[in-house]
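Ticket #4471: structure export looks truncated?
Reporter: QA, pipeline team
Priority: medium

Steps to reproduce: submit the single chain below to the structure queue and open the exported record.
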Amino acid sequence: MKKQMSMTRRLVFSVTGVVLVAWLLASVFSVMVMEEEFAEIFDSAVQETAERLLPLVVDDLRDRDDSPDLTQPTNGDEYLTYQVRDREGQVILHSHDSSAAPFDVPLKVGFSETPTHKIYTAATKDGDMYIQVADAFVNRNEAIQEAGIALLFPLLLLIPASIIAVILVVRRMLSPVRDLRDEISSKDSGNMLPIDNVGLPNELDPIARSVNLLLERLRSALAAEREFASNSAHELRTPIAGALAQAQRLQAEIPENYRPRVDQIENSLSHLAHLAEKLLQMSRADAGIGSSETVTDLMPVLRMIARDFERLPIGAGRLHIDAPETARLEQAVDPDAFGIVMRNLIENALIHSPEGSMVEISIKPGRVTVANDGPIIDPDMLSHLTERFSRGATEASGSGLGLSIVDSLTRHMGGKLTLVSPVTGRKDGFAAEISLAS
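Actual output as written to the record:
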C-alpha cells in the first residue's frame, strides 16, 4: 500500500508551489512591462541623441576647411552608432563602430528598423544633411534578459526560505492536530480517559467532544461486558462445582453399565468449570490489571505456582525452573496478574506436550520463558494463537483463551508476549516468552 503524505508535507509543497508559480507569473508580467518601457526609453534616447548631435556635427563640418575624416575615434564599444549623410545619401561622417556603407533605411525623418537595429533619422531645415542614430536590438535584449534574471535570481533564496518558513509555521499551527492525534491513538481498552480539549482550536473542539462521547459509551459498554463476564463466571462456579460433586458421587453409586455416561457428564462439567475460570481471568485481564507502582520480587509467585502444578498428576516431576534458589525477578508488576500469566503458560505447556516430557522455565533479567516438547507449529498458526478461542492443531482439551489472557495481561504490564516454534536450539517444540518492562 502506498504511504500517504503527511499534512505538513502537503502544505509545504502546496504553499511553496503557489509562491513559486506566483513569482514566476509576476516576473513574466514584469518583464513584458519592462520590455515596453525599455523600448520607449531607448527610442527616446536615440531620438534625443540624434537631435542634439545634428547641429553639433553640422557646425563642425561647415567650420572645416579640409575634407572631413569619415570616422571618429572612440574608446570601447558603442551602444549607439551614427552616420551623417548628404542629400544624395552619401555617408559624410560616421561613428567608429558604424560601417561606411549607408544604413539600409530611407532618408526620412523618424524611426526606421532593420533586422538588427532601430534607427532614428533627423535632418537639417534645408534638408542638406541627415544624421541617423542606430541602436542595436541586441543591446535592448541584453537589458531585458538582465532585468529578467534580476527578478528570477531571488527565487534561489526564496524557495528554500519559503520551505523553511512554511515548515515552521505549519508545524506550529498543526501542533494541536498532532496533540489530538496522539491523544486519540493512546486510547485502548486500558486507557479510555477523556481527551483534554482545553485550548483546542474551534475546528478541533467538536472532534474532541465527539471522541469523548464515544469513549464514554465505550467505557460503559466494556464495563457492562466485564461485569457480566465476571458475574457470570462467579455465579457459574458454585452450581458447576455442586453438579460436579453430584456426578462424582453418582459415579460410585450407579451400576457399571451407566458409568461411561456419568464419565462424560463429569468431563463436560470439568470443562465448563475450567471455562468459567478462564472467563473470570479474561474479565480481570480486560479490567486492565498488570502494572504496579511498587517493585516486587516475582520469583516466590512463580515457585508457588510451580509447586501447585507439581501436586497435580499432570505436572508431577515435569517442571524444571532454570534459576538458582537465590534468583530474584524484581519488576513493577502486579503479582496477581503475573500469577495468572504464569499459571496459563505452565498449564498450556503441560497440556500440549507429550506425557512425561519436561517443561523448562527459564529466568533471565526481565524475561521468563516457558518451553515444552511437541511438533513444530506453523508460523501462520503462531500469529493466531493469541486470538480468543483460537486453538492449534491439537487433540488436547482447552478453551482457546489461555494465550489470549497472557497476551492481554503482558501488554498491561508494559511487556510483550513472543511465541516461538521450534524452540531456539532445538529441532521441535514450542516456547512462550514474556518480556517485562524494566
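Status: closed, not a bug. The export was complete when the record was re-opened. Leaving a note from the reviewer for reference: Residues 386 and 404 are 4 Å apart (CA to CA).
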